[in-house]
Amino acid sequence: MAEAADFQGTSPSPARRWLRRTGAVLAGTPLLAGFLQLPAGSPAEAATPAAPRAASDDGSVAVSVDSLTPGAPSEGDTVTVSGTVTNKGKKAVTDASVGLRVGSLLDTRSSIDTAAKNSGDVDSPAGAEIDDKYTEKFSKLTPGVSQPYTISVPADELDLGQDGVYDLSVTLTGETSDQPWEQTLGVRHTFLPWQPDELDAKTNTTFMWPLVSTVHMTAETGSDEEQTPVFHDDELAAEISPGGRLDRMVALGKDLDVTWVIDPDLLASVEAMTTRYEIPGENTDDQDVVGGHQEVAKRWLTEVQKAVADKEVVALPFGDPDLASLAHHGTSVTGSLRHLKEATDVAARTVESILHVVPSTDYAWPVEGAVDPSIIKVATSAGADKVIVRGDTFEGGRDLTYTPTAPRPIGGGTTAVVADARLSTVFDGDMTRASASTQAVQRFLAQSLTLALQTDRPRSVVVAPQRTPSAAQAQTMAEAIGALQDSTWSQPQDLTAAAKSKPDPAAGTDVPPASAYPKSLRKQELPRSAFEQIARTQDKLDRFKVILSDQSRVVTPFGRALNRGMAASWRGRPAEAAIYRSGVETYLDTLSSQVRLIEKSETKLSGRSATIPVTVQNNLVQGVEHLVLRLTSTNPTRLQIDGDAYEEQPVAVSGGHSQSVKFTTNANANGRATVVAQLYTQDGRPYGQPVTFDVKVTEITATVMLVIGGGVLLLVLAGFRMYTQRKRAAARQAEEREQDDAADEADADAADKGAKNPAVSETRPTGESAPGTREDAPEQPSDPAPDTAPESADPSGTGERVDR
Predict the structure, then answer these.
(1) 330-367 pLDDT per residue, tens
(2) Which of 33, 103, 449, 684 is the most buried (most CB within 10 A)?
(3) Residue 526, class by beta-carbon neighbours within 10 Å (0-12 exposed, 13-18 middle, 19+ buried)?
(4) Which domain of life is it from (predicted)?
(5) How many other CB atoms are there within 10 angstroms of residue 184's CB atom?
(6) What band does 280 get if pLDDT is binned at 50, 70 and 90?
């Protein structure tokens, strides 16, 4: 950036202050002449110092300026400076005195930088001390002990003349036993902006207020209907809790005229915490635990909604992708720019749905505003036409004695919005110490006023601070913005208005070459392997989603996780970034493997045709469809699948179920054949791992058929023989029963006749059997001889031969 001129225009300050300062100089001229005419003193007199002198460059006493109010005083104000003095030496300091000194006018921005660099140098010019009544005395400063001081001086007593920035220093003078004379033992230089009257052409200042965090959400979600999100840590809860970094950013920013620059991922993550979320492995059993900060998340989002109401909101692409890393390492990987486009498209919807405001998505913000032609190309590829760059990395105009206005047309309809480097970086560093914070505020005001006094042209100045300010840095920024908004030389402006302001034709518009990109930033970029892993994971996601009945349950969380995998917040944390990306890919592999083929053992076929079942298992909570199962014979000469080398059948399986798919096979010869089962998506891409198993074919020959037929015939004959035997036995038993019945009838008839003819009855003794029934009765010639011997109806004994 071109430096400001070394001279200022006529000051609008009242003439009486100029006359008073001029009169003081003229009054001191005769006294100075008298001193010059004095004779030289003796050596002893020369050894006694007539004025304080420095003890060392660093000073043996540390002086801090912890507070300076008001930061930019006006006429009638009282300037109050407070802080501490600490004896760092080994000797006690006696007759110590803390006073204020107003130094020279710092009329260039570089002179302010030099003064800030040497703010503790006791050898730096400190100017004349203000009236002795505005000092604080210490009789003794013990080594290692700090003492507070407070000095209040009316602004009129500071004898400030021309408008601008003055070197204001707090000095401590005193004596030690080793050096028993008055000397400057410690100093702290700071800045005092002096512009009591309103400038005619105020600077339009835009301050970007970033709400950006690191990555907290994983790609994993619960299997419940609500898809409970999983966070890899609970640090976001600490940031949004009262007193946390993001809580302070919102509380401080709501009362400031700033442009809110928000990463939609932060809003989405906090919104996910408002219901139920899990953190893996946080307890002793290494089980997921439920986060308990729902009310904190709801309160923070409510506060953000109130803070951004009626304010300009700029939405960064989702996840705040690292544009420089993408430009330098990702564009050569297919599909990388696709993620940037998706992140930009989802940004506006996310912010609007949560904050109920319509954000601008026209801006790209590379890390630290450093650009080269490839970064500009990538930044605008997703639709942004304005790139926020920083002045120290962007070429300025030639021979400019002032800081030009922010917008610069760089061709192709793209505008580079150049943020002022000095104003943007002044809040870097540790701001937890009050002295550092106060110095940053005064330096910010000093640079802003010096910039305003460079020219009478109205200009737009943009301040783009660090992406993730700490709570202390945010507090310092708020103090500086508050003081600037109350100043007489600046007025707030939103980012869109700044970008649309009329460019300065003398300002440089050349984009720095790739060789000019800072090496320190290039070392922190994401490597090519990161984008290759993201592309590989995306390819797996594309293959997985086509089989799902509800793709949104997987596409949305994984798509956002891939955006987070290329976030700018991973800079300086390569190990954590690699772990996160690997976790996303591994979890996707785990989900994909829940749809698989069940392993099969060897199958035996005893015939020319048979059916082989193959089981598909779905352990997902949702159903899968659009899958094809292909069964392939590696030896179709021996074994065919449905008359061919392979057969395909569509597959659809409900969540948590399995399905068996049956294939008809035909065997042409005996032996072993290898069969491969593989799932495919409908576009012909393999899905999952194949299952390979053997099928053993045993062909049935004619001899075997004859043997089997003979055996069947013997079984039939044996059954028929048993049937006839049982039939004949039943017939004999029926015949014997008929003979017994006939004999009984004959005996009855004989008895009847004997009763009628006693002579006949007397010839038969009582109890005697009827003729032909007694065993000892002689056989009568007329009795028929039996043609068969009596036969038992019981089963034959073993080996017994039965004639039929």
Answers:
(1) 999 999 999 999 999 999 999 999 999 999 999 999 99
(2) 449
(3) buried
(4) Bacteria
(5) 22
(6) confident
Q: CB of 418 within 8 A of CB of 459? A: no
Query: What is the spatial distance between Cα 697 and Cα 638, in angstroms, rounded to a whole number?
Result: 8
Which sign does the torsion angle of CA 547, 553, 555, 558 carry?
Answer: negative
274 burial (CB, 10 Å; 0-12 / 13-18 / 19+) is middle
The pLDDT of residue 527 is above 80: yes
pLDDT at 707: 53
Kindly report the CA angle at 452 between 451 and 456, in degrees rounded to 5?
Answer: 125
| Eight-state DSSP code of residue 590 | H
Question: By the 8 A CB rule, do 481 and 328 touch?
Answer: no
Summarize pLDDT for 186-203 with one digit per residue, the tens: 999 999 999 999 999 999
Does residue 64 contact residue 84 with C-beta atoms inside 8 Å?
yes
Decide: 419 and 369 in contact? Cβ < 8 Å: yes
Ramachandran area for residue 416 (φ above 0: left; ψ -120 to 50: alpha; else beta): beta
Q: Alpha carbon of 370 to those of 3, 327, 508, 768: distances in Å?
A: 20, 12, 15, 143
Instruction: Give the pair of three-digit tokens for residue 734.
Output: 């029926």
Residue 37 φ/ψ region, left for φ over 0, alpha for ψ in the -120 to 50 degree band, beta for the rest: alpha
- Distances in Å between the Cα of 570 and the Cα atoms of 167, 575, 650, 666 are 40, 9, 44, 59
End-to-end CA, the chain: 130
How much of the chain is in helix, strand and coil states, percent to nearest 5? 35, 25, 40
Q: Which residue has the higher pLDDT, 439 or 124?
A: 439
Q: 630 pairs with which residues across the strands?
A: 648, 678
**Average pLDDT rounded to a whole number, residues 292-307:** 95
| Length, in residues, of the chain | 804
